[in-house]
Amino acid sequence: MDFNKLTDEEKRVIENKGTERPFSGEYNDFYEEGTFICKKCNTPLYTSKSKFSSGCGWPSFDDNLEDAVKRVPDADGRRIEIVCSNCGGHLGHVFQGEGFTSKNTRHCVNSVSLSFKK
């Protein structure tokens, strides 16, 4: 499988499970209509309809496209990591029960893990 060439920062986050600084990502305050795709493999992950402002400093989504995102226990044992179902690239973490939207779910995603298509 061919993957997109990643910058050092993208590799740090996507392949080595890093985190970008809060409020630094290009998609944190971004609300155009379209689809967010995996930066590494171009798999569609989220639509703009599921994006919302949580104030946490990272792009937040309350739902992913069907079978696009996989949930795995984080190495810290307390959180649930979310990865691209296709390539396994690190996206961020998912949180339940915060009450931001009716779905009561927040996918907290690193902007550098995403690309956007109108």
UniProtKB/TrEMBL annotation:
Name the record gives this protein: peptide-methionine (R)-S-oxide reductase
Keywords annotated in UniProt: Metal-binding, Oxidoreductase, Zinc
One term of GO molecular function: peptide-methionine (R)-S-oxide reductase activity
PANTHER family: PEPTIDE METHIONINE SULFOXIDE REDUCTASE 2
E.C. numbers: 1.8.4.12
Annotated ranges, domain MsrB: 1-118
Pfam families: SelR (PF01641)
Cofactors, names only: Zn(2+)
Catalysed reactions, as listed in the record: L-methionyl-[protein] + [thioredoxin]-disulfide + H2O = L-methionyl-(R)-S-oxide-[protein] + [thioredoxin]-dithiol
Domain of life: Bacteria
InterPro entries cross-referenced by the UniProt entry: Met_Sox_Rdtase_MsrB (IPR028427), Met_Sox_Rdtase_MsrB_dom (IPR002579), Mss4-like_sf (IPR011057)
